[in-house]
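Priority: medium. Attachment 1 of 2:
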């Protein structure tokens, strides 16, 4: 599977997006919880507005859902790229990568990106090289 430099850059960004999404989810969630604890303490007996409380959870929920969907999409892309780029491979390289994708998740997908997608594979001998051998 041949990818242009721009496509590789976009794929690289998508590989790191789930990690950034999970970090932003935790930051958003803890800031939201701490803010609500402070508002409950300041208001005394008056409980916070439930609509405001639920809207904060919806924001955190959307961040985590988008991160999960991007992670699943990256996993599917990596498996398709793996199978298409290793059609004639007879060893267990495909099985090894798929098992790593399933059991280690985002970490193995980032490693796969740097080991298999980024490097330029030179399968064809250029005309200049073939003329040098003659």
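Attachment 2 of 2:
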């Amino acid at each position: 599977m041949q990818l242009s430099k721009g496509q590789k850059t976009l794929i690289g960004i998508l590989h790191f997006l789930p990690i950034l999404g999970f970090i932003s989810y935790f930051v958003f969630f803890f800031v939201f919880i701490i803010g609500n604890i402070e508002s409950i303490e300041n208001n005394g007996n008056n409980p916070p507005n439930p609509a405001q409380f639920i809207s904060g959870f919806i924001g955190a929920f959307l961040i985590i859902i988008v991160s999960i969907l991007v992670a699943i999409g990256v996993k599917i892309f990596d498996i398709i790229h793996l199978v298409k780029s290793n059609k004639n491979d007879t060893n267990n390289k495909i099985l090894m990568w798929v098992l790593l994708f399933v059991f280690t998740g985002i970490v193995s997908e980032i490693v796969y990106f740097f080991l298999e997608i980024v490097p330029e594979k030179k399968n064809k001998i250029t005309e200049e090289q073939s003329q040098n051998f003659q």
